[in-house]
Design goal:
The protein is 18% helix and 30% strand. By secondary structure, the protein is an alpha/beta fold. The longest helix has 19 residues, at 304-322. Bound molecules: adenosine monophosphate and magnesium ion. Magnesium ion binds next to loops.
């Protein structure tokens, strides 16, 4: 049986070809993997501007100002955000301005409105009640990002929080990996579509929607196929169709040793080559990886917990790599166990855990591969070696998929 690392290495080695590159607009870039570095087209900020609502001044004019001894400046105009003040601030003068207003020529500081007073006795004058250092409350041109600077690198997966930066830096479109199209098959004669009536012994099919959502999250495009019943013919026909239409195929169920497990046989009948079908992890020992016409097959176990864990550990990194992403593993964060985690078995166990906001980590509940209640509580995995107890109080690495 392969270790997880050996399995991952074999999968990575088999996925030599990257997806083609396409252009997307900034608005459509979230979740996409960059194929080339992105450079800022303009400086950020693009011009010196005010960080406050207040008055543009010459710092030297207000050097000694205080509430008791305000500096009196002549108000020569105002400039709203989006306008430009055409004049120049001379000694003894100030200009009313607002957050984002360009700093008028001659001024070298902003005094915020709260530190000023208007006075009926001083028409067209402003009392400045606080000193300002040169460039105080001024956002300087290029201090955030300089034109021509690399703002995001090839292999970065664009997050929604980065769209602001891209748009503000003048980027219009960028080169990203094409979205992979991933076929999703669920095998099992007991499975029924959600919402349809259940006869005795039948259950609702639930893996495809979970996997489809997980695929969308990494920028892949799921293609969901009808439920496949447990016959060689149906499995073979479904695989043939999915391989014809997709870049890779993920199946769930039908990869164990039972008489109704047809994924491997059907795949080989179509000419697929199996790389391996067992990995020494729990949950998820039966996991098939193979290739047909250069396209990967990921055969997940049917139990939904096993399907999710093997997807996260083996499929997600592979697909991210196909997209050219640099970071392919689940993000790992330290946490402290509030109770022991016990693995009495002889395979390493990826125990489903709940990380609390204070960093305390506990078991999410029943650690069984069909236990969906505990899975829904969980937001991470802790890798517990075979025959090992991790004691309460110990610091662990939590592989996170949720918050
Ligand atoms: P299998 O891997 O086909 O032996 O299935 C293992 C267990 O997972 C059985 O109890 C199945 O009924 C269940 N199962 C398989 N596929 C699914 C699915 N797509 N949705 C929900 N449960 C499933
Ligand atoms: Mg089955």
């Amino acid at each position: 049986m392969l270790t997880l690392e050996e399995a991952q290495e074999q999968i990575f080695a088999a996925l030599s070809s990257l997806l083609e590159v396409e252009k997307v607009s900034v608005a459509a870039a979230s979740g996409r993997v960059l194929a080339v570095d992105v450079l800022a087209v303009v400086d950020l900020p693009g011009f010196d501007n005010s960080a406050m609502d207040g008055y543009a001044v010459r710092a030297a004019d207000v050097a000694g100002a205080s509430p008791e001894k305000p500096a009196v400046l002549r108000l020569i105009g105002h400039v709203a955000a989006g306008e430009v003040f055409t004049g120049e601030v001379a000694t003894g003068e100030c200009v009313r301005l607002f957050t984002g207003s360009p700093l008028p020529r001659g001024a070298d500081a902003v005094v915020m409105q709260e530190d000023t007073r208007a006075d009926a006795a001083h028409q067209n004058e402003v009392l400045i009640c606080d000193a300002a250092k040169p460039w105080e409350h001024v956002r300087l041109r290029g201090e955030d990002v300089k034109r021509g600077e690399i703002i995001l690198s090839a292999g970065d997966c664009v997050s929604f929080a980065q769209l602001n930066l891209l748009a503000a830096s003048g980027v219009i479109e960028m080169s990203v990996a094409r979205r992979s199209v991933i076929g999703l098959l669920a095998t099992g004669s007991e499975l029924r579509e959600v919402g349809s009536p259940l006869a005795p012994g039948q259950i609702y099919e639930s893996n495809r929607m979970m996997l489809a959502a997980a695929l969308r999250q990494i920028g892949a495009e799921p293609r969901v196929y009808p439920i496949v019943s447990d016959t060689l013919e149906a499995t073979s026909a479904a695989l043939a169709r999915a391989f014809g239409e997709c870049d890779a195929v993920i199946t769930s169920g039908g990869v164990s040793v039972g008489e109704f497990d047809f994924v491997k046989a059907a795949f080989e009948q179509l000419g697929g080559a199996m790389n391996f079908w067992k990995v020494a992890v729990k949950p998820g020992k039966p996991f098939v990886f193979g290739q047909l016409n250069g396209k990967p097959l990921f055969g997940l176990p049917g139990n939904p917990v096993s399907a999710l864990v093997t997807f996260l550990l083996l499929v997600r990194p592979a697909l991210l790599k196909m997209h050219g992403a640099r970071a392919v593993e689940l993000p790992a964060y330290p946490g402290v166990l509030s109770e022991p985690l016990v693995n009495r078995g002889d395979r390493r166990h990826f125990i489903r855990v709940k990380v609390e906001p204070d960093g305390q980590v506990r078991s999410a509940g029943m650690q069984a591969s069909h236990a969906l209640g505990a899975l829904a509580v969980a937001n991470g995995l802790v890798d517990v070696p075979a025959q090992t107890t991790l004691p309460a109080g110990s610091t662990v690495r939590v592989l996170r998929w949720g918050f």
